[in-house]
Design goal:
The protein has 4 helices and 5 strands, in the order ββαβαβαβα. It is an alpha/beta fold and 110 residues long. The protein has a single domain, classed as Transcription Regulator spoIIAA. It has a 5-stranded mixed sheet.
Length: 110
């Protein structure tokens, strides 16, 4: 998994590629929790290039959402592939996330 993070004021845009799994999700978690702890209130996670997410990856996304919300911020998932949305829907997590069709829409939706 590759993670590219861009910071803009109180927002970060995180572009993830590869698979979010038990072995890779701790790195994603660490980087984003660190950003929220430093005052980031708006988080966009672009999942365009993610081919697979397992239960550990889903737990990481839920934890990040909770962390951002508790800091009075918000998290958006951008360009999420249908395959990933279907996985989130199967485990009843799809409704807790805000999905945007493009990164630009996610950025302007806060």
């Amino acid at each position: 998994m590759d993670i590219l993070i861009e910071k803009k004021d109180d927002m970060i845009i995180c572009r993830v590629s590869g698979e979010i799994t038990f072995s890779t999700s701790p790195d994603l978690r660490k980087k984003l929790i660190e950003a929220v702890d430093q005052g980031v209130k708006k988080v966009v996670i672009n999942l365009k290039n993610v081919g697979y997410i397992d239960s550990s990856g889903m737990a990481t996304l839920v934890e990040l959402l909770q962390k951002v919300k508790s800091a009075e911020g918000d998290l958006k998932l951008a360009e999420t592939p249908e395959k990933i949305k279907e996985i989130l829907d199967m485990v009843r997590l799809k409704d807790i996330f805000d999905f945007e069709d493009s990164e630009e829409k996610a950025i302007t939706s806060f």
